[in-house]
Design a protein that fits this description.
9 strands, Jelly Rolls, 43% helix, Arc Repressor Mutant, subunit A
Amino acid sequence: MTLNNFDEFIDKTDYLQTRLLQVNSCGSERVVKYDYTILRSNGRRDFHFLYLQNGWLDIEVGTAKARLSRGQCAVFLPNVRQMYSFTAAGDPVSLYLHFTGQAAAEAMQYLRPTENMIYTISDQTLFESLFHRLNRLHNLQQSAALQIPEENSILLQLITIVCRSSADNEAPIRSDILSAMEYMREHMQEQINFQTFAETLHLSYSRFAHLFTQAVGVSPQQYLLRLRLDRARGFLRDSSMSVSEVAESTGFNDPFYFSRMFSKAFGLSPRAFRSKCRK
């Protein structure tokens, strides 16, 4: 599976956080007739659980490739490359959940990372029941304010089950690495000196880079680039800013370098991407 073989998936529910705990979307998918692949070369801005209730599917988390099987949950951290393929041969039935917020990030620090970020869920019956309850609740056509407390309660239970299921792995995602990810999200338009930033965490740069790459799957520089490109993609899709203005607003000093990196990541120039979104 390679980047150039598939079109970039354009999300409509990749919302920025507005609450401490926030469900962006949830639901289920099943292949009926046609095989298809979901590709997010720079991931999403939120956390993503992909749980398999039946069958199997092939996935890529960052650079790691694996096969997701029944009873397993893949965890995608924010702004990490995602790719997964639904095939009739695998007959997969999947449940997906996208969520964000500072409280979510704090709860997720107890997740223990693995190379492919796949976890066999310990209590699958409870997990699936909670998932279906959240799906029904989130997609109800009623006032959102009435359902938020119950949504949050179910979401935290799901996060807890996934984190407990990861307990046999080596080490939790460190709070300083999660803080670094949050800092980059909030200051991506600035020029970040990672050497200086590592010192604020009382780490050498090499130690910081090693811990970050181990937890997230990409280097700090690659993660920041993905953040900037993802924000630029949103500006191109939703605003009337020029390409040069988008580049400047997302931390790129050189619009030509920005266009080159954008084309490399998404297979389209910024102008071509904007035109495709507005057709």
